[in-house]
């Protein structure tokens, strides 16, 4: 039986976190290649440390001359990302850090299992399991702890970049412990916020004075009370941040990227991967399906699992769990999903229009719970499958 009264905690990290710097660069590389060719193949990984960024992995374009041309742009793409994030530290500066590009052409052995041939649909780029989740506890149909942890850091990034709070640095982490009563979020028992600051003389109390109004602004009214515990820069000074303070790597924040631990995760990272990789595209499809199932009123909570094998176009399995909140049986939901959306890699890309340069913006503050954008960004957050699902059950 599900618990009704409990505390659940999730964390987020800012765009200046070392791992997120790497996610951003990897997705910027992906966007650059997709801008040239919607069918570009990219699997880019980035590593960052003091005064150094290393980019590796596989890329592919149909035009080899264009491929070599774009290889020459990689260094500037990385520098532009670091500059936009805001790093101008002595030991990690967008203009002076060393950039090493080790990208190479995609393996023909991987390509042969993915590329369509003889009028057959293309196969999945790899085996794996992907999960999607949705819940009615927030308007975005996301778990409250991760949704508001993201919101805090997005707001602090806005005021940092606008110049309203010049003392704040790019690197930050937030963590919320949310109180649930009768299965619904009602308050926050503790707030943890660690943020880099550019003035070495600032104390933890000084930083709290800066950030508390913005945290209060983004959380629902009444969630912060006299009983809420605050831990702002609990270790003291936080001046050295980003890859100079701690090495970063693409794909190390997969729980931050998804549901904050409130739902299962298949284990595959997203950033730097083109949408033929089901680690990314099928996870987006699973979120899209779970969100539409919940939006259709079939349940209050929904987990969807999809599974794939490399070179095989159709999912091996579709699983739905309504966590005891269903108005419709999980079996009926599974059948409806299979009939309402083509879940082959190509079908997912075409339905969600994923072959676009829309990925750099996903690299921080979560891939889910965002508003769909006019150019196709966050298309997996649309709830345009509701009526079709209703008709199918």
Question: Mind explaining what this structure looks like?
Answer:
With 393 residues, the protein is of the alpha+beta class. 33% of the residues lie in helices and 24% in strands. The protein has a four-stranded mixed β-sheet. Helix 5 (144-162) packs across helix 6 (204-218) and helix 9 packs across helix 11 (386-392). The model has no long low-confidence stretch (mean pLDDT 94).
Strand share of the residues? 15-25%
**Which strand order do you get reading across the main beta sheet?**
1-8-9-10
Large-scale geometry: flat
Q: What are the secondary-structure elements, in order, as H or E?
A: EHEEHHEEEHEHEEHEEHHEEHHH
Rg, Å, rounded = 21 Å
- The whole-number mean of residue pLDDT values reads 94
Unreliable stretches (pLDDT < 50, length at least 5) are none
**Helix fraction by DSSP (H/I, runs of at least 4):** 25-40%
Based on DSSP secondary structure assignment, what is the total number of beta strands?
Answer: 13
| Contiguous helical run count | 11
- Terminal residue distance: 26 Å
What's this entry about, in short?
The protein has helices at 18-36, 64-71, 74-85, 108-114, 144-162, 204-218, 254-257, 278-295, 330-340, 345-352, 386-392; strands at 6-13, 41-49, 52-60, 88-89, 92-93, 98-105, 128-135, 168-181, 184-197, 229-232, 248-249, 301-308, 317-321.
């Amino acid at each position: 039986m599900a618990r009704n009264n409990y505390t659940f905690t999730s964390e987020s990290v800012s765009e200046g976190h070392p791992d997120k710097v790497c996610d951003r660069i990897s997705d910027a590389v992906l966007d650059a290649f997709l801008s040239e060719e919607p069918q570009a193949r990219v699997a880019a990984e980035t590593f960052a440390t003091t005064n150094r960024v290393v980019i590796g992995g596989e890329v592919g374009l149909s035009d080899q001359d264009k491929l070599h041309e774009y290889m020459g742009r990689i260094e500037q793409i990385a520098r532009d990302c670091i500059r936009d994030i805001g790093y101008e530290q002595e030991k990690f500066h967008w203009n002076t850090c060393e950039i090493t590009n080790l990208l190479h052409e995609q393996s023909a052995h991987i390509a042969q299992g993915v590329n369509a041939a003889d009028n057959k649909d293309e196969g999945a780029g790899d085996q794996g399991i992907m999960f999607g989740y949705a819940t009615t506890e927030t308007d975005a149909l996301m778990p409250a702890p991760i949704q508001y942890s993201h919101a805090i850091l997005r707001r602090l990034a806005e005021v940092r970049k606008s110049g309203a709070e010049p003392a704040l640095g790019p690197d930050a982490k937030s963590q919320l412990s949310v109180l649930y009563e009768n299965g619904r979020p009602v308050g926050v028992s503790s707030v943890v916020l660690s943020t880099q600051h550019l003035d070495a003389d600032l104390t933890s109390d000084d930083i709290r004075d800066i950030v508390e109004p913005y945290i209060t602004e983004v959380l629902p009214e009444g969630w912060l009370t006299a009983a809420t515990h605050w831990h702002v820069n609990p270790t003291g000074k936080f001046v050295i941040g980003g890859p100079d303070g701690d090495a970063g790597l693409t794909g190390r924040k997969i729980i931050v990227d998804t549901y904050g631990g409130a739902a299962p995760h298949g284990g595959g990272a997203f950033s730097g991967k083109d949408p033929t990789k089901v680690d990314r595209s099928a996870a987006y499809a699973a979120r899209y399906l779970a969100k539409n199932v919940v939006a259709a009123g079939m349940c209050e909570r929904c987990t969807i699992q999809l599974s794939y094998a490399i070179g095989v176009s159709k999912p091996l399995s579709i699983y739905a769990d309504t966590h005891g909140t269903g108005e419709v049986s999980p079996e009926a939901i599974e059948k409806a999903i299979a009939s309402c959306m083509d879940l082959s890699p190509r079908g997912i890309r075409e339905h969600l229009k994923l072959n676009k340069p829309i990925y750099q913006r996903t690299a921080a503050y979560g891939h889910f719970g965002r508003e769909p954008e006019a150019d196709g960004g966050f298309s997996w957050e649309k709830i345009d499958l509701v009526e079709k699902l209703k008709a199918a059950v």
